[in-house]
Amino acid sequence: MMAVAEIKIELKKGVTDPEGQNTKKALELLGFKGIRSVRSIKFFEIELESEGDEAVLACKEMCRKLLANPVIQRYSIHLK
Amino acid sequence: MILYGILWGEDVNPEEIKVCIMRIEGTNCEDETYNACKAAGCNPELVHLNQLTGHAKDRRDLEEYDALAFPGGFSAGDYVRAGAIFAARVKSSLGKEMRTFVEAEKPIIGICNGFQILVELGLLPATDGISKVPTAALFTNDSGRFECRPTYLKNQGGGKCLFTRKIPRGKVVMFPSAHAEGKLMGDNDRFLDRLEENGQIVFRYVNPDGRPSGYPWNPNGSPGNVAGICNPSGNVLGLMPHPERALDPLTAPDWTRHKKKEGDGMAIFRSMVDSLCR
Q1: Within-domain flag for B100
Q2: Is residue B5 part of a domain?
Q3: CATH number of the domain to which B112 belongs
Q4: Is the distance from CB of B160 to CB of B230 less than 8 angstroms?
Q5: Which residue of chain B comes nearest to A8, CA vs CA?
Q6: Which terminus, N or C, of chain B has the lesser number of Cβ atoms within 10 Å?
Q7: Which CATH number, 3.30.1280.10, 3.40.630.30, 3.40.50.720, 3.40.50.2000, labels domain A3-79?
Q8: Is the pLDDT of residue B4 over 70?
Q9: Catalytic residue set of B
Q10: What is the pLDDT at residue B10?
Q11: Measured distance CA(A21)–CA(A26) in Å, rounded
Q12: Residue A47: which residues within 8 A CB-CB, separation 6 or more?
């Protein structure tokens, strides 16, 4: 039994993303054109001994306790 | 001894005041914080989180201490979010003791990374009491950069915060700032108003004329130019700039213009000691 969980931590809508903005600027300075926006997203890949609902529940707990701050971030969990 | 002193209204010897300077891997301002406490006359000790929780040979109990400081640095490499790992570890292994400490209204200061830890712990702003999940965040500076320079702060003088009792209301002090994540954000639109109503705003970034100002005087883009806040009872203070780096007047960039006996930062630590001596 094993699952690989992909956890994506994104900024909530309306929270400015200086890293994304700066990256956009840097890409434009490199000559890339037509970039509408750049968002920075954090991605964790976690191998678990559990799977299914149990694995998702564990991941939710991980997000709640450490991986996401609900004031600025939201998380999504995907089992591979 | 301290309890005895408080009960009997006697003066407490500052040297008997034990301050726990809590660190984990990546904390790096513990020595300055130690020196600040020492200079203010009390008895600080550098304590690793594991000493307070595990079965270490040099085991300590949080309740032995009269005050607690979370120093600056890059605890746990600032991974996940600044302060998040330190906070999660404290919450899971020392949660009860921390709550007792806060509720006993013992002084707790978090400087820079320490402020980020207090926010992640839910001990600040704690407008509606200690929260299980964070109700605020110290997010990436608007500039997207590490901002490092002296900053002017005006004491907003809500009157509650025990760490600013020796700083007159409206006085401008200069503490150095050095952080990449210092923008204080709340979980609702009334966040700042409620802090203000509660007298929880302790310091705001100002320009040299003492007026609240944006970038570059405010290094991170915090709404309302807020630099430091306390909890509603005033015993927990978190601030981004470093008072412990402003102990000696000779380290101030304007030391030739203002002859001072000691650096601005000393007042924070003297206030803490003073509040425990009464």
Answers
A1: yes
A2: no
A3: 3.40.50.880
A4: yes
A5: B80
A6: C
A7: 3.30.1280.10
A8: no
A9: 112, 242, 244
A10: 61
A11: 9
A12: A2, A3, A4, A5
Q: Does B84 touch chain A (CB under 8 A)?
A: yes
Are A22 and B144 in contact (CB < 8 Å)?
Answer: yes
Which chain A residues contact residue B85 at CB under 8 A? 66
User: B176, B242 in Cβ contact below 8 A?
Assistant: yes
Question: Which chain B residues touch A66 with a CB distance below 8 Å?
Answer: 80, 84-85, 88
How many domains would you assign to chain B? 1
- The DSSP string of A17-51 is -HHHHHHHHHHHHTT----------EEEEEEESS-
How far away is chain B from the Cα of A66, in angstroms, using its nearest Cα? 6
Residue B1 within any structural domain of the chain: no
Which tens digits make up the pLDDT trace of B165-189?
999 999 999 999 999 999 999 989 9
Q: Which structural domain range is residue B217 located in?
A: 13-277
The percentage of residues in chain B with a pLDDT greater than 90, rounded to a whole number, is: 88
Burial code of A16-45, b = ≥16 C-beta within 10 A, e = fewer?
bbbebbbbbeeeeeeeeeeeeebeeeeebe
> With an 8 Å Cβ cutoff, are A66 and B80 in contact?
yes
Best of A16, A72, A73, A75 to mutate (most B CBs within 10 Å, chain B): A72
Give one DSSP letter per residue of A8-19, joined into a string.
EEEEPTT---HH
d(Cα B54, Cα B66) in Å, to the nearest integer? 21
Residue B105 CA neighbour count, 13 Å, CB half = 9
Query: 3-state DSSP call for residue B19?
Result: strand
Contacts of A70 in chain B (CB under 8 A): 133-134, 187
Indicate yes or no: CB of A66 within 8 angstroms of CB of B88: yes
Give the number of other CB atoms < 10 A from CB of residue B84.
25
Which of B92, B143, B186 has its CB closest to that of A71? B186
Residue A8, min C-alpha distance to chain B (Å): 12
Chain centroid offset of residue A59 CA: 13
Token duo for residue A63: 């997000």
B176 assigned to some structural domain: yes
Average confidence (pLDDT) over B46-57: 92
